[in-house]
Amino acid sequence: MDLQSGQNAPVGTGPLRLMVRADPSNQAPSLDPSAFLLGAEGRVTGDGGFVFYGQPRDPSGAVVLDPVAATFQVDPARLPAGIERVVLALTIDSEVAGLRAFAQFRSVLLTLDGSRTGLRFPLATSGMSETALILAELYLRNGAWKLRAVGQGFVGGLAPLARNYGVDVSEKAAPPPPPASPRPVAPPPAADPPRRIDLTKRQPVSLEKPRQGFGKITINLNWTKGEKKGWLGTKSGGIDLDLGCMIELTSGDKTVVQALGDTFGDYDRPPFAKLLGDDRTGESDSGEFLLINGNRWNDFRRVLIYAFIYEGAPNWAAANAVVTVTAPGSPELVVRLDEHATGKGMCAIALLENDGGRVRVTKLIDYFAGHKPMDQAFGFGFRWTAGSK
Fold it and tell me: Rounded to an integer, what distance in angstroms lies between the CA atom of residue 28 and that of residue 92?
């Protein structure tokens, strides 16, 4: 069974063997696999929670890495109490083959052997500019262990990836003394955590919930507006994009937040999302903003972010639109409307989903003739009538 990014499958009981392969295979020695044993807070619970070439097994022996064969032996039954996830990651050691990004590979393949055999996660990497990759995770749900295919690129290499899970590699990732490693491996230089990630279509990225909660999640839409407000307040042309969203809460309530129809929402009460005004003049350099109350994220099931051309020809290439998703303590996620469609004035830009308390963001860039066909594609089930603003 082949998994796609975001899909999961049970792994049964008993020890597991997970193997990583890359195409082309002659470049595979430049890949360094690692594993993070995480508690409920999404961070390692101690120094032994980071398994890599310099520490190829955790103290319990539940996770054992063969860095040469790029193989993990995992026995979930032996994991210490409180460990709920084992994240499997890959980073590129540029000192080995001079590689700088996963785009220099055609694909990476993860296969699983165990009581549930035949699970594979093939991931095309040709468009990935990152040097680190969260490949998959084993996680505990209702007393059973499952494998989730992730495929999330991470900017900056091993150092910021490890810090994301509470490990300081400047102290932990020193090269092992011979003969612990069959080849000398220099530790990646210390780097600041990534602050900006450009999303790839259909490859979701999940934001882990900080200890203090997500706080205010900001969605910004900005674009090239063309000619702006002219003499005596008249507009001389340009493109007017409107930002909006469809929301489904865990209660089953559904609503639309957009300027069309004056449904601007509410931040502190359902739907816990509010659109800040509407840039009709074309004078705002910062575009339009939608705020989501991240402290109420547990009340959300999903949020579909979209934009539509309210005025001007449906020329998305000229609009050159970009959406950014920001949350306190998390990298800024950038969604570029880098694919275009003529004659369709509505674009489904991104889908935010509640994934076990995390914010899972998927770049879509799907175009539609209007609200109704887009709604039908995503199954919200609204009744649409003509509106104005």
Answer: 9
Cβ 76 vs Cβ 138: under 8 Å = yes
CA–CA separation, 66 vs 71, rounded Å? Answer: 5
pLDDT at 362 over 90: yes
Q: Tell me the β-bridge partners of 152.
A: 134
The torsion defined by the Cα of 305, 311, 312 and 315, in degrees rounded to 10, comes to 10
Query: Each residue of 106-129: b (16+ CB within 10 Å) or e?
Result: eebebbbebebeebebbbebeebe
Q: What is the DSSP string of 81-120?
A: TT--EEEEEEEE-HHHH---SGGGSSEEEEEEESSS--EE
134 shares its domain with 18: yes
At 165-181, the pLDDT tens digits run 888 765 444 444 444 44
DSSP class of residue 163 equals H
Q: What domain range includes position 53? A: 8-194
Tell me whether residue 59 is in a domain. Answer: yes
Q: Which residues of 157-178 are buried (b: 16+ CB within 10 A; e: fewer)?
A: bbbbbbbbbbbebeeebeebee
Q: Is 231 helix (H, G, I), strand (E, B) or coil?
A: helix
pLDDT digits (tens, 9 = 90+) for 178-202: 444 444 444 544 444 456 788 988 8
- Is 67 found in the same domain as 180? yes
